[in-house]
Write a structure and sequence with these properties.
The chain is of the alpha+beta class. It has two domains: about 110 residues, no CATH class; about 80 residues, OB fold (Dihydrolipoamide Acetyltransferase, E2P) (Beta Barrel). About 35% of the residues lie in helices and about 20% in strands. It contains four helices and nine strands; from the N terminus they run H-H-E-E-H-E-E-H-E-E-E-E-E. The strands form three sheets. The protein has a five-stranded mixed β-barrel. The protein has a two-stranded antiparallel ribbon with strand order 1-2. The protein has a two-stranded antiparallel ribbon with strand order 3-4. The chain starts with a helix and ends in a 20-residue tail after the last strand.
């Protein structure tokens, strides 16, 4: 039935489109951690974005449905398979859900892996978010929206360097504080002159040898 086939294809295509839109929304809303957009739109739980996970499921579900659409019972006749699903045998009806589940799992694992990559300079694999609130010093100037380099000490007191970004220009030598993460970099802001360092003493940080 051409009309029924069109409706079925439209349903899966719509699911994939909605899923892609949710992924884009989650990525946009989570650009700055711990903001209202990050909390209420990206639905962050630790390092995982639930909105992105749901979007990935819909994308997988939609693509799975377009590849192997389920059986449809025609009026007064036996079940007939729509599209190219026949080559997958009995997997047709379950393939969309299976692909959606796999896509959601990949979204979770990828998000966790990305946030546990080594920071430049030998940072331990504990996630960038652990450094939020730490004080550091800029060792390579940062331009607004661009990237530079900071030096600080980890929880064990060992000096390290890491890539950083900021919302304003920050010259070399400026004391800064890590306020979040953005695009696999630490997001920093200058420390007001009257503010005492909180987790590390930026004045005593030595630039790591290269």
């Amino acid at each position: 039935m051409p009309g029924l086939e069109f409706l079925t294809e439209s349903k899966f295509a719509l699911a994939a489109t909605v899923g892609l839109a949710l992924i884009i929304l989650a990525r946009w809303a989570s650009r700055v951690r711990d903001t209202k957009r990050d909390t209420w739109l990206a639905l962050r739980v630790g390092d995982v974005l639930l909105t992105e996970v749901v979007g990935a499921f819909f994308v997988g579900y939609g693509l799975g449905g377009l590849v192997a659409q389920p059986d449809v019972i025609g009026p007064g006749g036996p079940p007939t398979r729509i599209g190219v699903g026949g080559r997958f045998g009995g997997l047709g009806p379950s393939l969309p859900v299976a692909m959606g589940t796999v896509a959601a799992a990949v979204a979770i694992l990828t998000r966790l892996d990305l946030n546990n990559l080594l920071l430049r300079g030998g940072t331990p694999r504990n996630g960038m978010s652990m450094y939020v609130g730490y004080d550091a010093r800029v060792i390579a100037k940062i331009q607004a929206g661009g990237y530079g380099q900071i030096a600080m000490k980890d929880a064990m007191g060992y000096p390290l360097s890491a890539g950083a970004t900021a919302e304003s220009d920050i010259p070399e030598g400026t004391a800064v504080r890590v306020i979040g993460t953005k695009d696999l970099k630490l997001l920093v802001a200058p420390i007001p002159a009257a503010t005492e360092p909180s987790k590390s003493t930026a004045e005593t940080v030595e630039q790591p040898s290269t």
